[in-house]
Amino acid sequence: MFAAEEVLALMQQYYWPFIRISAMFLAAPVFGAASFPVRARILMALSVTALLAPSIPPAPDVDVLSFTGILVAAQQAVIGLAMGFIVQVLFAAAVIAGQSLAMTMGLGFAMSVDPQNGVQVPVLSQFYVILATLVFLAVDGHLLMLQVMADSFTLVPVGPFALSDTFPRDMALLGSGMFASALLLALPALTAVLLINIAFGVITRAAPQLNIFAVGFPVTIFAGFVFMLLSMPSVFVQFQEMFGAGLEETLNLVR
Fold this sequence. Notes:
mainly alpha
């Protein structure tokens, strides 16, 4: 028979890592999607916790129901949510890239439900999100994310600690970098469509009798799709660099 103290110590060994891991799964892409079953997410968090708990530094002997225990649990949840948020920002950049390109091409009215977030986004945003998901899984981003989570227990062991004073600023800067990443993704096709619109503006001034709306919209949409196709190799490379930089920033954040 196990003593009550041994059972509590064993529970604490798995309790604290489970909070951090489940919080990361809640905020991370793919795992935290609205279409991902909640029971499967909990089961996956339990499985990863059971695999990682024996190999991480031992948790401190803290009463779970005490004020210190609640504080430690909140800190673990903040770490997990922050790690998942950083990777989620990369997928949000894909949504913004598709939205800016759709508005420029005249496809802003074509909306579709994003299964990642459960909201309506332009179809081009959905296209970029699907590409980002496929690239993320193809480069084993989900496995690298779990590796980063395992390393975080060594860098920031479970226990009461004070968050850095620059933590809120770092999170805000990572969120602002989402717009820069979105611009880099959509820049080739966005520049081409912008030049075409400028050319149609010059034609309108030179020949006012020309019905520019009947000609401009089909040409703009067609040119946008053509330049999106031509920019696909650079988009794939950009996605890989974004995921690599995002996972590296995750480690820097927990440090």
